[in-house]
């Protein structure tokens, strides 16, 4: 069952100003770090805007990690052998988060080197997540991702699962371009099943995208981001350009990515590195050497900032609950009309309206003799889907249009209020054919 996301936080508008790049010094090394750069925000649906989630964002301008936002370790995971996450390898200096590697005496758990991890305290469901990162130059990865803090449906083994969105995985010191030059992005749906009478982890459902930057990712900063659009879709971006889209598999779960996740910034090792390194010509070690682990000129991954955003209705939008994320609140529905959480029902976020032989409507206060515009995203498998109407307070139809697209498409209707200071936005089902609606706006023009 879908749970409406609840946030106790302050939202602030995005900043669009940009200041020149300033040269700072880090561990006696010169590092070009901007004092502020704007985010590469994707275009939101009309009538909506991006608002920053401050408790999941950080410019790292302090002198230590902000403990109200981040942990300097992942409390449920020590790391993947041979690298153990060490809190001492996490630092904030000169406006950047620094995650470094280090030597580490072999312990009783079999760890032989030190990595680093930062885990977010707060969670979000859907949104846009971005970080400006310079990869380290060792054969330990530089990563930025989202992960469930707790499994969904924990009491039911058949539907229990956790989810993960890997925005960036790279190994800056890998001896060929496959990991040194490429942004690897992935999604993982991690189900469970009953095995020998016990609930155990089952095979992941994994889908991803890759982008070859054409340069080593350890040479300069790049912006890595993802728009978690719906339970069924994620877009990935490199330096503001969309490099891939994952339409999430829904054979096991119709709405697979529907639970909250927190952010992770991690420097780690992979257990497949020894096998993969053998396929590369020449003599190469699969992991950093002791000298490399402690070399400050190569052993640090730099995170200039981390920013998180969520879609909200713009102030100019007159429609209440315009994305149906609060269920039927603000809408009058009759007949076969409802708000649903199912595969393909939403244009963004979790919920959308579904109607066949039914109606949904909302009354809106307007100014006399003034121009307005309706924008909404809709689809119908039929050539003659629902009809969108604007009706004045005397019952006269001011404008109407029929939905006919099989995929979500933008429908725009312009109208003048004439002598009405109140209009009704009405969407009527057509001959029982199903129509889905989402992200509706009415605004003055």
TrEMBL record:
Alphabetized UniProt keyword annotations: Glycosidase, Hydrolase, Signal
Record-linked CDD domains: GH16_beta_agarase
SUPFAM superfamilies from the UniProt entry: Concanavalin A-like lectins/glucanases (SSF49899), Galactose-binding domain-like (SSF49785)
Keyword Signal: yes
Molecular functions per Gene Ontology: beta-agarase activity
Signal peptide stretch: 1-17
Domain GH16: 48-314
GO biological process: carbohydrate metabolic process
Superkingdom classification of source: Bacteria
Gene3D superfamilies listed in its UniProt record: 2.60.120.200, Galactose-binding domain-like (2.60.120.260)
Tagged with keyword Signal: yes
Entry similarity comment: Belongs to the glycosyl hydrolase 16 family.
Protein name: Glycoside hydrolase
Organism: Saccharobesus litoralis
